[in-house]
Specification:
It is an enzyme of class 3 (hydrolase). Pfam families: Glyco_hydro_47 (PF01532). It is built from 17 helices and 14 strands. It has about 475 residues and is mainly alpha-helical. Among the domains are: about 50 residues, no CATH class; about 210 residues, Glycosyltransferase (Alpha/alpha barrel), CATH 1.50.10.10; about 70 residues, no CATH class. The strands form six sheets. The chain has a three-stranded antiparallel beta sheet. The protein is extended. The termini are far apart.
Length: about 475
């Protein structure tokens, strides 16, 4: 023994009389006792009631049940009989359903499964108004006239069949040599995936969906749909072209949804649209040309006039993004593209023309280069189609288009010495008397918009459209095959 003084008092301490082995045995006994107690509480019958009574002060009804009175016993017996009757009924119902299922054909079983999925989907929507992806309920209505019609004119029918034959040849070749790749290289007969799409695959599949449907190639359409559902993935750590991904993937998915009503296309389009939204995180809201889909970091093409965004790229998002807002219920998509209009409206436009380069940081034009062909083309097309898509209610889009067309006619449209109408390019006030191949779309665009022009200009614009189309035709006809 030893003693210790605390505050002048002495305390005697004695070493323990238990040996180490005895301590170990006592510890084991104590552990076994604790385990037994907890096992009794959690695993013995009615232990949950015991827990609720001990720890949570069960109600009077539960307390009376524990006492086991005669009336309570009768209730318990009656309840047990009801439970057993329900089990027997459910068992018999299951046997009948199993017998019916065994007698059904495989296609009927498949249809039943789909019907059950649709039922669950509708129930989920009716409860919350949205599905698991928080998408609004859309009552799908198939556009009339997309399929199911044959032309009465024999020549038209023959041309139609020839076009379908060409499509089938191209599609079958893609399936055989490049399935899943972004494109088929026809000479080497190998698949290729351009870095414009990062590591996203299947551009040709998504691109072809609407054509397959309209041409009533339904077996191929279903094959392509299955690929999209199982393999189209946007969760990639890769940099993509916002413009190319929008017109090829978002546009392809949206058109496939509107033609077929398949939800997979709507969901995929919205998923991709959400991935593209960080491209708009610039001081002006003018989007970057390139975006890493994982990090959300964007940049512009190094060659584009001091880090500028390109008119044909940021101006060719409007149609798809307006539809993304409609189908997702998320106004952000529409707000982003409408902001582009606001920025353009605030800027002074040389001679009413839109230069191809705009700095997304300063909000000022870059190099004063104007072209209705490459770098500018589809901006004008989308202004017109935005007005048409709105059932001609988008007056701002209409005004922007016709004002731009007037500036193009005044400053860029010229006639060659040989009588061919062309649309020149403009660089800092000087005309370059050339028209690139991409400008040839303007013939169709001007013809499409002639119907909405003032009455005194409708015929004039149709003539312009025809003349530009003739110029493009002559550019091919007058080119030697050896060239």
């Amino acid at each position: 023994p030893f003693k210790k003084s605390i505050g002048g008092l002495f305390f005697h301490y004695y070493p323990t009389s238990f040996r180490l082995t005895e301590k170990f045995i006592l510890l084991l006994v104590f552990s076994a006792f604790i385990t037994l107690c907890f096992g009794a509480i959690f695993f013995l019958p009615d232990s949950s009631k015991l827990l609720s009574g001990v720890f949570f002060h069960s109600s009077a009804v539960e307390t009376n049940t524990r006492k086991g009175t005669d009336s309570d016993s009768n209730i318990a017996v009656g309840t047990d009989e009801k439970i057993l009757a329900k089990i027997r009924k459910d068992h018999e119902k299951a046997l009948v359903e199993a017998k019916d299922t065994l007698q059904k054909r495989p296609d009927e079983i498949k249809q039943d499964i789909q019907n059950e999925k649709d039922k669950v989907f509708k129930e989920d929507l009716s409860k919350g108004g949205k599905d698991d992806d928080n998408l609004p309920v859309i009552e799908y209505v198939q556009p009339p006239g997309a399929t199911g019609h044959e032309p009465s004119d024999p020549e038209t029918k023959e041309r139609r069949e020839k076009i379908k034959e060409m499509m089938k040849f191209a599609w079958d070749s893609y399936k055989r040599y490049a399935w899943g790749s972004n494109e088929l290289r026809p000479v080497s007969m190998q698949g290729h995936s351009s870095n414009l799409f990062g590591s996203i695959k299947g551009a040709t599949i998504v691109d072809a969906l609407d054509t397959l449907y309209v041409m009533e190639m339904y077996e191929d359409f279903e094959m392509a749909t299955e690929w999209v559902e199982k393999n189209l993935d946007f969760n990639v750590n890769a940099e993509v072209s916002v413009f190319e991904v929008n017109i090829r993937f978002v546009g392809g998915l949206l058109s496939a949804y509107y033609l077929s009503g398949k939800e997979v296309f709507r969901k995929k389009a919205i998923q991709l649209g959400e991935k593209l939204l960080p491209a708009f995180k610039t001081p002006t809201g003018i989007p970057w040309a390139l975006l890493n889909l994982k990090s959300g970091i964007g940049r512009n093409w190094p060659w584009a006039s001091g880090g500028s965004s390109i008119l044909a790229e940021y101006g060719t998002l409007h149609l798809e993004f307006m539809h993304l807002s409609k189908l997702s219920g998320n106004p952000a998509f529409a707000e982003k593209v409408m902001n582009i209009r606001k920025v353009l409206n605030r800027l002074d436009k040389p001679q009413g023309l839109y230069p191809n380069y705009l700095n997304p940081n300063s909000g000022q034009w870059g190099q004063h280069h104007v072209s209705v062909g490459g770098l500018g083309d589809s901006f004008y097309e989308y202004l017109l189609k935005a007005w048409l898509m709105s059932d001609k209610t988008d007056e701002e889009g209409k005004k922007l288009y016709y004002d731009a067309l007037q500036a193009i006619e005044t400053s860029l449209m010229r006639k060659s010495s040989g009588g061919l109408t062309y649309i020149a390019e403009w660089k800092g006030g000087l005309l370059e008397h050339k028209m690139g191949h991409l400008t040839c779309f303007a013939g169709g665009m001007i013809a499409l918009g002639a119907d909405g022009a003032p009455e005194d200009k409708t015929g004039h614009q149709m003539e312009q459209a025809a003349e530009i189309a003739r110029t493009c035709h002559e550019s091919y006809a007058r080119t030697s095959e050896s060239d």
